[in-house]
Predict the 3D structure of the following.
Amino acid sequence: MTKQSAQFEPFTPKTISLLTEQGDWAGPFKLDLDQATLKRFYRDMLAARLLDEKFTILLRTGKIAFVAPHSGHEAAQIGLAHALQRGHDWFFPYYRDAGAILALGVPLKEMFGHALATLADPAKGRQMPGHFGSKSLNAFTPASAIASHVPPAAGAAISMKLQNTRQVSVCTFGDGATSEGDWYAGVNIAAVQGAPAIFVCENNKYAISLHYSHQTAAASVAEKAHAFGIPGYRVDGLDVLASYYVMKDVIERSRQGHGSALVELEVYRFGPHSSADDDTRYRPKEEVEAWRQKDPILRFQRFLERQSIWTKDWEESLRAEIKAEQEAALQEAISAGEPPVEWMFDDVFSEMPWHLEEQRRLVTDELS
Amino acid sequence: MPTMTMVQAVVQALDEEMSRDNRVVVMGEDVGKRGGVFLATEGLQQKYGPDRVIDTPLSEAAIIGAALGMASHGMRPVAEVQFADYVFPGFDQLVSQVAKLRYRSGGQFTAPMVIRMPSGGGVRGGHHHSQSPEAHFAHTAGLKVVVVSTPYDTRGLLKSAVRDDNPVVFMEPKRLYRAIKEEVPSQEYLIPIGEAAIRKEGKDISLISYGGSMVETQKAAEELEGVGVSAEVIDLRSLMPWDKETVLASVAKTGRVLVVSEAPRMASIASEVAATIAEEVLDSLEAPPLRVTGFDTPYPYAQDKVYMPTVTRILNAAKRVLDY
Ligand SMILES: Cc1ncc(C[n+]2csc(CCOP(=O)(O)OP(=O)(O)O)c2C)c(N)n1
């Protein structure tokens, strides 16, 4: 039965998927995205992948100290980023969301500035790489502490409801995060308040070395929604169209006052947990290889090729364009220069108490 | 004698205690199959199995709270918190449950457990991988607190911590995990909790420190030696209880003292030690006791090296004390 529009039922026995692995549309409704949008999705996915590669090169050459690779998460992240109303809705990302941040429109120069801790970083180099945020795009600066952003995401949603702003709060995290007390506390308060919060698990099956089967006895993250009294959706996060359409549907329902939801986007992390990790210690190479065969970018590419949108030439020029853009942004970020040392004493409070003034003086004297 | 790093000393101590006493279990995030993110539990799950080296879900409240339940029921858990910065989701368990169990039950229930955690800065980890939260623990009645600085001490103190009948927060400065290799006896040994170590004898000034800052403190002492100043260097090792006797005896001898620590200054261990010195041996002091500490800002990523007390900062303070 063909539906009129993209509306989804929660708690489906099967994972929601709209594209087959061969790249055929298998949705129960008519695809209503124009060519430009489809191309945009592809471009963003590719840019996210190339950004991951660029960060890895910077890491190897000692320019940055840390990377949390997001390869394998592109479809999920680009899909969800496009489902948000950019600059209106709020996004509470975690450290693996560089792809979503990019698709949301955070300037590349800022992203490189952050990774390199230069003056191009709006956060003034305060955090380690991978913690991208943007005040102007309502992307809440992440904290590394897993799940600590879930209650704040709920709080922002409660404020949206109280102020009737017709915004939503979208909060992402990994499967490991769902074990933290903060996670339960946050989802619960949003749910009971009927707040427009959408909690999105990018389930890549691992929390560093711990496999999902040791993280929880629940068969899926989505079904945990039952316990909070909110709908839960299990979605193929390697399918950018499924990720987009489900997020869009869920977001719009929350916006209309139907409360919170939990979405599980099933993905796989192709790289190690982070640049500090050696994933061969806990997962077989063959497993990784098998998942790489399901590359979300290739799946979407096949789809676009069938629609006569993707061609080899386009791919090549797109890659060249993205790489040039990234290199230019990197150079701009580098030439912005390093934040002055004494900046470390700013922003602890809105004003500087005497003890911080003393400590700042100690440092400036020492350096002069 | 074999040589080992601090991280190997952790593995060795745990291995020895696990084979000595089968009530000892290790639990935490990634401690089993992965051997810990710093490899501080490497090989233990292969040797003792997944029931004694438990890969836990990602929840510090579960790790610390469940360890307490197991301890009260007769086991000797060694819980790992992946970074000291991540103790906070488990802080309620630590403060409300672990620290107070003995007291609130009038001694009927006890919590013989260790909560290990890599701590401190210097690894470009930003504020969520660099903090030194020891003052929170020392401020919480009922927790013993140890911060190690050498492989030798790590092995001896961790073994004592496992055998202690109280909860012990055991902090391992991560920047030292592989920085120092040291000869360690092949036979087992214990180092009592509560005793400081005099790393270098001296008569002109006492430099009191612990943990990661021992490195810069010892370097500063060498430089002072070069300009004819004889510095005594004390490594506190245990912060709760701390070795007041050794510290006061040293200060009584030298009359001049710096307390050095990379932890933030406000309400710190350094402040506590300095205050005690002022209260108890004021008459022996030739100069006010000075603190050389981390700053009262969150640990900044971009200024990783500036945040922690540098050798220069220690020497500048030493000069103030010596010229007083
Ligand atoms: C409170 C807390 N505990 C531990 C850590 C260390 N740590 C960083 S990432 C991670 C695993 C997270 O896994 P998951 O939530 O599944 O997200 P993924 O990294 O797989 O995307 C852990 C244990 C942390 N950052 N915060």
Observations:
- Residues A 96, 144-146, 173-177, 204, 206-208, 273; B 29, 58, 60, 82, 86, 89 surround thiamine diphosphate (CB under 6 Å).
- Chain B touches chain A through 40 residues (CB under 8 Å).
- Chain B has two domains: 3-183, 197-323.
